[in-house]
Write a structure and sequence with these properties.
Elements: E1 3-8, H1 13-24, E2 29-34, E3 48-60, H2 65-76, E4 80-84, H3 89-92, E5 108-119, E6 124-129, H4 136-145, E7 163-164, H5 168-184, E8 189-199, H6 204-215, E9 219-225, E10 228-234, E11 237-242, E12 245-249, E13 251-256, H7 261-273, H8 275-293, E14 302-311, E15 315-325, H9 332-337, E16 347-348, H10 350-360, E17 371-375, E18 381-384, E19 389-393, E20 398-407, H11 413-431
Antiparallel strand pairs: 1-6, 2-3, 2-9, 3-5, 4-5, 4-17, 5-6, 7-8, 8-16, 8-20, 9-10, 10-19, 11-12, 11-18, 12-15, 13-15, 14-15, 17-18, 19-20
Helix pairs in contact: 1-4, 5-11, 6-11
Length: about 425
Amino acid sequence: MMRSVKRYTFSNIQDCKRSLLTWAKQFEEVVWLDSNSYEGQTYPEFEGLLAVEAFTSIQTDSEGGFDRLEEYQQSTQDWIFGYLGYDLKNDTEKLSSNNEDHLGFSDLCFFQPKKLFLLYHDRIELHYLRMVDDEMDQDWKHISKIKSNNTDVTASTSQLAISLRIHKEAYKNKVRTLLDHIARGDIYEANLCQEFYAQGSIDPWATYTQLNAISRPPFATFLRLDQQYLLSASPERYIKKIGAKIVSQPIKGTAARGSDVLSDHAFAKALSEDPKERSENIMIVDLVRNDLSRTAKKGSVKVEELCKVYAFKQVHQMISTVVSEVDSQITPVDVLRTTFPMGSMTGAPKVRAMQLIEALEASKRGLYSGAVGYFDPKGDFDFNVIIRSILYNADKQYISYHVGGAITTASDPDKEYEECLLKARAMRSVLEGKS
């Protein structure tokens, strides 16, 4: 599919981002991806991407989901944007999802945008389908005239009352159940999650803006598909394809930020040396290496970075980088099919861990711990892991966010619960209007 391309300049990148998001409010299909100029990010490409207004689209449940995505990606040979819900696990393994689903998102959804904006630090490129390319100059003129108020980021939460799907003692008992399975040798790590939820309405645009301002992560996302929204402050990349190179960057290991430079450095150092956190990370690195090997050229799977601590506004995170190379006959969707879901959100061995967490969790994960991102016309792609995210169904007036942590033989149920609360802090503060 041919696109017309025009390039423009701007004077301030933050003003440009705010104007783009304000302009995008008129559309029912929106994906905004923001790297937030995060200096620690490896393999950066764009400062931001905005895709709006579907020309074609695909939406499906898990059964046959990856086959349908492959057919769609191969037939469009164009930019497509969308998400992979966690329950696509049922398409690649003999698994099921029987927990309650209060959000009602499909398991997979992608669309081919009529209008696409590629934002760099010093310029912006508009890539429009030929049918609408006569609107490029006019659209950019309108965007450039938008005066977004930087202080207008307060999310109206209508006095939301946030509830827990699993209460503290119940969560701790579920941790103990997983510890029993670990002791028996059934698994050696599992990611156990819990849902926080509320009934009510929010302004999704303002809520996203405020959540992003708190966290400034490298894989922030605003997604709108009609009345369904994803507001994500994700720090984690699931997987990226650059030509023949595949990059996956699992996160395992979390610590709070300090109130001053000395305490902050001490927290980071303690995280980097913590044997439990390093063990968690290395287990998932091994899982990711195994996943990548299914499509990799022989001997090409390598660990470029092991257990490096990165600082984000809310927390320190331990991140590893695993890479591989694929042959040209391996399709882009095959790489996703053989690695999904991200190992950091499941456990090891992967299939048995997913069976156990399905039995212990109280609600369907849906988009949470899935992925959102894009394919370009060459078949390259980039997807985040949907964590630190608020999901909102405006029709149902249902708001949800999940958090979780890796359970290993060294886990303490009280500390695991406290880690969940730490990860939930940004979402809860935004929804309660306390940030």
